[in-house]
Each structure stands twice: as structure tokens, then as C-alpha cells.
Design a protein that fits this description.
Structural class: alpha/beta
Order of helices and strands: EHEEEHEEEEEHEHEHEEEEEHEH
CATH architecture of the largest domain: 3-Layer(bba) Sandwich
Number of helices: 7
Strand content: 15-25%
Helix content: 25-40%
Distance between the termini: 22 Å
CATH superfamily of the largest domain: FAD/NAD(P)-binding domain
Length: 305
């Protein structure tokens, strides 16, 4: 990066994040966009209800064009998942899966809200009874317990490594790990027991999780099952940072008309900011969030002079 501190870091490379990057960088802010295009729900969608688009367009094509625009205007891009964000005085420290740490004056969360289910037998019945979808939220409930994490990507590996600080034994079940070399090395050097090229077929237990049955017919006696299918979600990142969620459903970040959250310099846009889950809304909120973040940084720099 051009500076030790980036003006605006955007987490999420979907329509909201890309539009935020375009507007922030055009207001002369240094911008770093984090995430992978293929993680956006738009990537595999077909679009025909967006203004000025004639016929049906592939979502992947639109995202590729958006990234080219953002980079042409001057935004930097890093195709990595974010694992952790914390506030340090008047900046935010972001750690990505390669281990790289980035410091930002302002932060835009635009990662969407989809929570993927494993769709294994017993999952729905035992949800909240040992089945969890958030390591950061629930790890503390499994002190000295045996647990299993299910997933192929960075959230699963990071979750398994985190659980080593709580659980007595940690298994990671993955069909085909797709993480950075650095994260894979940390996993291989840890005490996590990797069950690769395998998957969970059934979660067993009467009133709570007692074990899991794998596709190769192995049974693991565990008390907790953490389902982490994908990248670290904005909800988890937001909760750890102290960003307030809506008080009724706790499914999205509360923002004002400038897309600002409750922490200084933190903004949210797109699905993570609530319904409707539409590209048009995501782009509009990304526009507002990008300009708001750039204006916030400009004001912050003036105060520092």
C-alpha cells in the first residue's frame, strides 16, 4: 500500500463494496477493497431488473467490470478473507487470512448476511443445542469439551484454531481445503485434528449434540458442532468489534442515512444493512457509504493538522 494507514478499507467485494470503493477513491481517499468476487451472492445470479441493463446479464460479469472500474480509479484490491477486526484508538486493525495486518482510518462492512446451512440430518433439531454457526460467539460455552468444525474455507480453519483456546479436542472436517498457504501452515502446525476429504453426514444426540457421523462412516464423539461454510461473516466481525445490530432480529447492522454504524468511521452497506436484498439497494448504499467514509477521513485529517 502507498501508506502505512489506509483511509478506507472495504470488507466485501460485492456490488455494495465495489460501489463504495469507486465513490470513496474518487473523493481522493486511499482505498483498499478486501474479499473475493465469487463470494458475492451476485456472482452466480442473473440480472435483468437493474436500471439501464438490457436483457439478462451474468452477475459475475458485472462484478468483474465493477472491480476493473474501482481499480482504474485508483482503489487497491486484495482477494483475501478478513479474519479479525479490532479498534485501536482512532484506527481499525484488520487481519486477513495470509496474516497480513492493515490499519484503516475508516471501515465499510459490505459482506452480505447469508448464513449457509450444512443440511445434515439432525442439524436443524440440534441448532442451539450444540450446533453453532459462530465460533466467536459461542466458543466460550465449550470449555474443555470436544468439538468439531465443518468447512473448507478460512472461517472454518480460523474457527478451529480459535477453539484450541477453549476446547479439549478440536476436529476439522473438510472436503477440500481452500485457504491461503499461510493459514494452511498454521493449521498443519497446530493441534487441530484434520479430517480431510470427508464430510458430516449426520449430527447425533437426543437433547444435545453427542456425536457426528462422517461420510466415511467414522463417528466422532463431540459436544459441539461449529458450521463455518465460507468466509468470516459481517455479523461475527461486527459483534467482535462492538458494532450494534438491530434490536429485533439481530440479523443486520443498524445504520443512519449516511450508512454510519455506532462506531466512529464505521459504515455498512448492502445486505448486511437490512432488507431488501437487491442489487439496486446495495449499489445505492455503497455509494452513500463510500462518500461518507471519505468525508469522515477528510475531516479527521483536518483535525489532526
Amino acid at each position: 500500500m502507498r501508506e502505512d494507514i489506509v483511509d478506507v478499507v472495504i470488507v466485501g467485494a460485492g456490488p455494495a463494496g465495489l460501489q463504495a470503493a469507486i465513490h470513496a477513491v474518487r473523493k481522493k481517499a486511499s482505498v483498499l477493497l478486501l474479499g473475493r468476487l465469487e463470494k458475492s451472492s451476485l456472482y452466480r445470479a442473473h440480472v435483468e431488473n437493474y436500471l439501464c441493463i438490457e436483457g439478462v446479464k451474468e452477475g459475475s460479469e458485472l462484478l468483474e467490470i465493477g472491480l476493473l472500474q474501482a481499480r482504474r480509479f485508483g482503489a487497491d484490491y486484495l482477494a483475501e478473507d478478513v479474519l479479525h477486526i479490532e479498534q485501536e484508538e482512532d484506527t481499525y486493525l484488520i487481519r486477513v487470512e495470509s496474516g497480513k495486518e492493515i490499519r484503516a482510518r475508516s471501515l465499510i462492512l459490505a459482506t452480505g448476511t447469508s448464513r449457509k446451512k450444512l443440511k445434515a440430518k439432525g442439524e436443524k433439531r440440534l441448532a442451539g443445542k450444540g450446533v453453532s454457526y459462530c465460533v466467536d460467539c459461542d466458543a466460550n460455552f465449550f470449555k474443555d469439551a470436544k468439538v468439531v468444525v465443518v468447512g473448507n474455507e478460512s472461517a472454518a480453519v480460523d474457527g478451529a484454531l480459535t477453539l484450541l483456546n477453549y476446547a479439549s479436542e478440536v476436529f476439522l472436517v473438510a472436503r477440500d481445503l481452500a485457504v491461503s498457504d499461510e493459514l494452511r501452515k498454521r493449521l498443519d502446525e497446530s493441534a487441530v485434528q484434520l479430517q480431510e476429504r470427508n464430510w458430516v453426514k449426520e449430527i447425533l444426540g437426543e437433547n444435545a449434540v453427542e456425536s457426528v457421523l462422517l461420510e466415511d462412516d467414522t463417528t466422532l464423539a463431540v459436544e459441539g458442532v461449529f458450521i463455518e461454510l465460507g468466509a468470516k461473516g459481517a455479523i461475527e466481525l461486527a459483534m467482535n468489534l462492538g458494532v450494534l445490530l438491530d434490536t429485533e432480529t439481530f440479523t443486520h447492522i443498524e445504520t443512519d442515512r449516511k450508512q454510519a454504524a455506532n462506531l466512529p468511521g464505521v459504515y455498512a452497506a448492502g445486505d448486511i444493512a437490512g432488507h431488501p436484498y437487491q442489487m439496486a439497494k446495495a449499489v445505492g448504499e455503497g455509494c452513500v457509504a463510500g462518500m461518507s467514509a471519505a468525508n469522515y477521513v477528510r475531516k479527521l485529517k483536518k483535525e489532526e493538522e
